[in-house]
Amino acid sequence: MSIMTRLILTSSDSGAGGLMQAGLADIVIPFGIRFIRDRLPTPTGLATLFAARSAEHGSPGSHWLDFIRRRHLEEIGGRDLGLIELCERCEVIELWIDPDPNSQLTLIWLLDYLRHHAQIASKLTLVQADVAIGDHLPEEVATWRLPSARIRNDHLEQACAAWGAYRAPSPQDWFNLLSKDLSVLRQLRHSVLELLEELPMNATGLGATEMRMLELISAGNARPFDVFPGDKKRNERRVFGYWEVGALLEGRLAHCREPVVSGLDEGPFTLEMHDDRNRYERYQRSRLKLTALGEAILARAEDFSRHNPIHRWWGGTELTNDRLWRWDPANRALIAP
């Protein structure tokens, strides 16, 4: 017999807090995993992260429940359950998923991970939000009547194909998703396009988020957090999270070999900097300007990759100056190296 009733798995910490306070489930567990910018975790690494606790989980953060709030841990009977074991103990499992690309990647990974467990897959219901759940008060979330869908084989098959495409060593399979019917996972198509837009542009060598940051800095009187994306902010891009954007501004734009942004007075963008009041205030007060190279790139007259080394990951694709997949936004075309 199941010892628990209703479990919500969701895609953000802030969303989990609102869902729990709204009283929508007995247990709410967020996934804090990021599939953006850095090299993807290996299948073995993910399997270990979400397995029942063992000697392999010796360091903080090595087990998926390490940082879950204590009240959640008490309700599920401890910190040692694996994802499969937790799902087996629940009668109803709802997936409340934000619309941003990392959340959609979390969804397709999760469905691919669970598709081999038919008994668990049969319990799953997808609740797809059109807005970030964590941006709304629990009282509001409690009144939502969002469309939901029981997970079927076509959900699992589409998630498996999409996750395989994102993990591939080139973006070609991911690009090919645009020619397929993705409506069964209705937020996926937009995320496919948003992620492709973060490949280096054909004329500039920078992705869409970086170019939007240059545009905002060019307008004048910009401080660092003025160019960060966020709810009701001028930078509407939503691919990268807070820490990733900070790393982009510092490492890719301001403190690279030939900077495109000047005036950033602090760094590196770490928790230690945030904990140091003087350093954090100095960072906030920075006045950002475009360098001559930055102005040329914004005007599509220069290419970042001609002046700076590139070595970063996009899904399973390793991007370097010698192997630089590019995106042509005008024609929505993928350009091979």
Highlighted features:
337 residues, alpha/beta, 5-stranded mixed β-sheet, two-stranded antiparallel ribbon, 15 helices, 13% strand
What order do the helices and strands come in, and which of them pair?
Elements: E1 4-10, H1 13-21, E2 27-30, H2 43-49, H3 70-76, H4 83-88, E3 90-97, H5 101-114, H6 118-121, E4 124-128, H7 138-141, E5 148-150, H8 153-167, H9 172-176, H10 188-196, H11 208-218, H12 242-254, E6 261-262, H13 271-275, H14 277-285, E7 289-290, H15 292-298, E8 311-314, E9 317-320, E10 326-328, E11 333-335
Parallel strand pairs: 1-2, 1-3, 3-4
Antiparallel strand pairs: 4-5, 6-7, 8-9, 10-11
Total number of beta strands: 11
Q: What is the count of DSSP helices, taking H or I runs of 4+ residues?
A: 15
Strand order of the largest sheet: 2-1-3-4-5
Q: List unreliable stretches of 5+ residues.
A: none
**Cα separation of the termini:** 56 Å
Helix/strand order, N-terminal first: EHEHHHEHHEHEHHHHHEHHEHEEEE
* Biggest sheet descriptor: 5 strands, mixed
β-strand amount: 5-15%
- CA gyration radius, whole angstroms: 21 Å
Average predicted local confidence, pLDDT: 93
| Form type | globular
Share of residues in helices: 25-40%
Computed structural class:
alpha/beta
